[in-house]
Amino acid sequence: MSYRLAASAEMLFTDLPFETRVREIASRGFEVEIWDWTQKDLNALAATGATFGSMTGYITGDLLEDDGIEAFLRTAEESIEASKIINCPRLNVHGTGLDGNGQAIRKRYSTTEAEWAKATETLTRLAELGEKHNKMFMLENLNLLVDHPGTPFGLASETIRLVSSINSPFLRLNLDLYHAQIGEGNLTELVRQAYDYIGEIQVADVPGRMEPGTGEINYKRVARELKELGYDGVVGLEGWAAGDSVKALEAFAEAFA
Questions:
Q1: Contact 253, 213 (CB under 8 A)
Q2: What gap in Å lies between CA 46 and CA 239, rounded to an integer?
Q3: What angle do helix axes 156-166 and 187-194 make, rounded to 10 degrees?
Q4: How far apart are CA 137 and CA 123, in angstroms?
Q5: Which H, E and C letters describe 127-142, residue by residue?
Q6: Burial label, 32 (beta-carbon count in 10 A; 0-12, 13-18, 19+)
Q7: Residue 101's pLDDT band (cuts 50, 70, 90)
């Protein structure tokens, strides 16, 4: 196995204090992923000794509106400084800011070609910011049918189009296969299409957003495809535990063994 496994401390061991969650995940050999860094004691997280794979890379803003763009880029730079405290190399972004329930703050159900050009310009500036600090930003696809309606540039086909058009090593895809299964399906072919631009792959099963083996996705087949392609990045479990978090991590590791 050439790729590495990570797990979200936001969604596992949720009955424990956050730093303890981080230690639990790291003690089992997984990298750790976090979301909103503004609500965490980053120095305490750094002291856990965990390897952090990714974190949220902005606080607010979007890719399209003038005020949103400036907020997006400003808080991306703040996120870079935060990432240095825990030595986290990859920062995750979306087409618009999400509220506490994961809903698009500025909903859009269609975009014009002029707005595509605006988003491309914004992401080019983001890639330049990443290059300045040697950090990778990742644009994540989100499903629009169940969890995140109205998020612009949410489909994997859209994130691939944007990231590939910029083609910078400092802007890559966070290819979330849970979201892609709901929105598009055909995951093996999607991995092939996106492969040259992947910064990370995230997984959870459908329905329910829980560990592999609880739903309809054949993650063993996805794992085989990643091995055949020679993928050597991170596969992250961003899902809830169907029951016990330890068993969820074991099921995840077994699916990607």
A1: no
A2: 23
A3: 10
A4: 9
A5: HHHHHHHCCEEEEECC
A6: buried
A7: confident
- Domain at 4-255: CATH code: 3.20.20.150
The arithmetic mean of pLDDT across residues 98-115, rounded, is 92
Chain centroid offset of residue 122 CA: 19
Counting DSSP H helices and E strands in the chain, the numbers are: 9, 8
Q: Is 104 helix (H, G, I), strand (E, B) or coil?
A: strand
Residue 213 exposed, middle or buried by CB count within 10 Å (0-12, 13-18, 19+): middle
Q: What is the pLDDT of residue 148?
A: 95
Q: Rounded to an integer, what distance in angstroms lies between the CA atom of residue 57 and that of residue 77? A: 8
- Indicate the DSSP class of residue 153: T
At 1 the pLDDT is 57
Cα angle value 28/16/80 (rounded, 5°): 75
Q: Amino acid letter at 240?
A: W
Is the Cα dihedral 9, 14, 15, 17 positive or negative? Answer: positive
Neighbouring CB atoms inside 10 A of 59's CB total 17
DSSP bridge pairs for 92: 56, 138
Give me 168's structure tokens: 């910078």
Residue 136 CA, distance from chain mean position: 12
Total residues belonging to the chain:
257
Domain ranges of the chain: 4-255
Helix (H, G, I), strand (E, B) or coil at 224: helix
What is this structure's pTM? Answer: 0.96
Q: Is 132 exposed, middle or buried (0-12, 13-18, 19+ CB in 10 A)?
A: exposed
Instruction: Give the tokens for residue 209.
Output: 């957003």
- The answer to whether 107 touches 118, Cβ cutoff 8 Å, is no
